[in-house]
Amino acid sequence: MRISNDRGLSRPYVKRTEAAPMGSLISRRAMLAGMGAGVAGLAACRSTNGASSPSSLGFKEIELLRTPGEVMPPGYRSDVVIRWGDALFEGVPDFDPRNLTVTDAEQRFGINNDFLAFLPIEGEPDRGLLWANHEYPNPHLMWPGLTEANMAEAMTDTQVAVTMASVGGSVVELNREAGSWKPLLSRQYNRRITANTPMRISGPAAGHEKMRTGYDPTGIQALGTLSNCNGGVTPWGTILTCEEGAAWIFSGSPAGLPDEPLLNRYYYDEPENNRWGWSRVALRFSLANEPNEPNRFEWVVEIDPSDPDSVPVKRTALGRFAHEGASTTQAPDGRVVVYLGDDWEFEYCYRFVSTHPVRPGGAKANTNILDDGVLSVAKFSESGRLEWIPLVFGEGQLTPENGFHSQADVLINTRGAADLLGATPMDSPEGFAPNPVTGTVIIALSSNAYREEPDAANPRTQNRYGHLLELHPPPTAEGPDHAADVFTWEVLALCGDPQDPALQARYHPETSASGWFTDPDNIGFDMKGRLWICTDGVQPTGHDGLYAMDLNGNGRALSKLFYAPPAGAECCSPTFADAGRTLFLGIQHPGEGAASLSEVPTHWPDFDPTVPPRSSIVVITHRNGGMVGN
Predict the structure, then answer these.
(1) Which of 18, 167, 435, 523 could form a disulfide with 431 if both were Cys (CB 3.0 to 4.6 A apart)?
(2) Beta strands in 326-401 (DSSP E)
(3) C-alpha angle with apex 583: 577 to 586, nearest 5 degrees?
(4) What is the pLDDT of residues 89-98, one digit of tens each?
């Protein structure tokens, strides 16, 4: 998810000289499933709820209607687990947003939750740890009297500081009581991470001169994390939370600064920056005051949720860019593989492969495994070949002649390095994750309205609706080789209304009028390897939604609408637990779209124009206790 989908291009797109014909972009397997190129709008939008449906997803698809509250299939229920402002510790007073202080906010669940992870506590089926990212604040929906237009100037210094204390992440211990998951107010595990939490910088860029600031002349100690979008869970049980951009946080212009080209490549020259006025209370967010501070953000941060005293670590070997997520798997030889997308128009897809295999013994045995490995960038060809190009100092054009004097330089300017190596500019890579059942890898590309020339992996101009790709690592006797230098790939779906021939949308031919979608964002997989997709855009009803589809069999690419969050909200990070019987889902930015708190729609429960709508985590279950989606 990005804070805004309306930004213009800061970097001119280098047009591709050869565009693949549409028919070459859809695989033979997709053609056999009825998605072949050559006939636009092939999906007939027939009902998928009948007995003859090829989908393995047995739920009754909901209708795409403009309704004020959440909608889900018959037989399902949702229960709120925790909301913005709920206490994490005993003794915290009732939530009063009008009188929040920094100390108070740091003891409460944060705002606008995105990535979720649920880690069961071994041997205790009714206990687990929930991690949630808190991506960004909505000051104009947190306090009365603010508007989206004036919030940066109109907030008090205390309110500005509270927004910094409300983002980052939360660890929450959950207990299941009488079938319902409830937070346990305890300091054994519960924890808040904020924009001010001390962190360690590790890996090749640690200590580099571009990482040093006035308050940290060593370049190895940072304060805070921000723009925490999606993430991942490592094989040893730690959380990877991703910093998806930072430019909008900072005040000032990069013009005339020593690293002006680097700052511009990371979009620090855009007029909408300094969105929340943070530099008023923290001078490190002023480019004039600390020109190196931007280089200390846009990393992947590793956090051990089982140890509330552990220091979060920014893992620089995984590159610096607008990290959407960091989904992990393992190669056949045990090395960890992390898939990483740069969520901006014309940016790239990356993969990190560790040097060493994962060791037994959990987090303590794998403390620095993510500091040593190779980061590569993806180059897609029309033939269906995907080449992973290493971003290694001294190889190819990554040399002093081109401004790279060390591996640290390559990582601090990952985008610039990828530019030189001929990587494929993509249509905003969002969800990018391996399927734990099939071993393939799915990429959700949300949109790119600025594309003038198509290429094989981004086959439409002015792609306002997004698409899905499926990558195939080469098979081995021990399983798919996610560390291989070459994969194959295919288009899984082209999003948009299949009844509009101009859009060239592609789904299974039995996709219903409710089943097509746009702007695919977070993705997840259930215990059967089926794909679940959260959208982040303007759907036909004003709702975003959660869709599900098979990836194999006769129902491949037949998407069905399962859930719609309250109007103005986006659902995030579908996370399955309890053998697929429990679905955790984030409900982010309810009421967004309103210019101020007084304009939030009155359908909210106990509506009061002075009380903000609250982002939350919900649990969705079937009333008979069966697997969600069946």
Answers:
(1) 523
(2) 327-330, 335-341, 345-347, 349-357, 373-380, 385-390
(3) 120
(4) 999 999 999 8
